[in-house]
Amino acid sequence: MSLLNISCKKATYLISKKEQGKISLFDRLTLWLHLGICSLCKRFEKQTGFIIKQAKHTHTEEKLSEEAKERISKVLDSSY
Amino acid sequence: MSPSVQATDWVNKYGDILYNYTLKRVSDKGLAEDLVQDTFLSAWKNRDTYKSEASEKTWLFAICKNKIIDHYRKKSTSNVQYAEVDTSSNFFDETEHWKREDQPNEWGINYHQPVETKEFYGILDFCKKKLQEMQQSVFVMKYMDDLSAEEICKVLNISSSNYWVLIHRAKLQLRKCLELNWINS
Q1: pTM of the entire structure?
Q2: Residues B173 and B130 sit within 8 Å (Cβ to Cβ)
Q3: Are residues B92 and A30 in contact, defined by beta-carbon separation less than 8 angstroms?
Q4: Are A69 and B12 a contacting pair at CB < 8 A?
Q5: Which residue segment(s) compose the domain that A1 sits in?
Q6: Residue A37 contacts B where some CB pair is shorter than 8 Å
Q7: Which one of B55, B77, B99 terminates a domain?
Q8: Would the CB atoms of A63 and B16 count as touching at under 8 Å?
Q9: Could you give the CA distance from residue B165 to residue B177 in angstroms, rounded to a whole number?
Q10: Which tens digits make up the pLDDT trace of B68-115?
Q11: Which domain covers residue B131, as residue numbers?
């Protein structure tokens, strides 16, 4: 059975492979078994899944400073 | 692009959105400004060849994306040996189980419900910028720009196993950083 036992380090690594559809059948099985008994890794999976879903939203609006705008305009004009 | 267009109008119209986009993908403001400037400069020099099939905005964004990817590529060639190091051992003990201080704690939120507060995005941005450069590049390309693992390996010139280690490490770091700054604050 020890072949099917994986560590938390390995499990958290495999979670990304699973999420990106790049996990072997064997690894999928060992991960599934691990997540069945390890609440910490299960939590890691939920939380990182949440983070990557959030990563695409971009809510903060940053503005280019007036100085930078002026500088860039000058660069463009002088390259004409 | 009509040659009569004024550089200033252009920069005023698209400067902010390009900068905002770029700043989310690189680590500092000065660098983001440089990349935006490069974008405008390339576009400006080629404005006679621009055909109005795509909108001006789409065209500028395409150039901007390439500038950012070029930047990641350049950075990766100077950083390869650094990225090879698997430092995720920090989070786990010698038996590869979670160290007590690095264990994921319960966040008490609904993970299926998007969070849209300004505070959250501020912290997420902060945490992303705290990542080591290669981790940040991989994270942004994968989770913000939807590139495939193969494309990312090619751009950064890294092996597939290196890619997975970087993804793993980036997630461990981000999760911890969010927990510390967002949940526990």
Answers
A1: 0.78
A2: yes
A3: no
A4: yes
A5: 1-54
A6: no
A7: B77
A8: yes
A9: 18
A10: 999 988 877 655 443 333 444 589 999 999 999 899 999 999 998 888
A11: 87-183
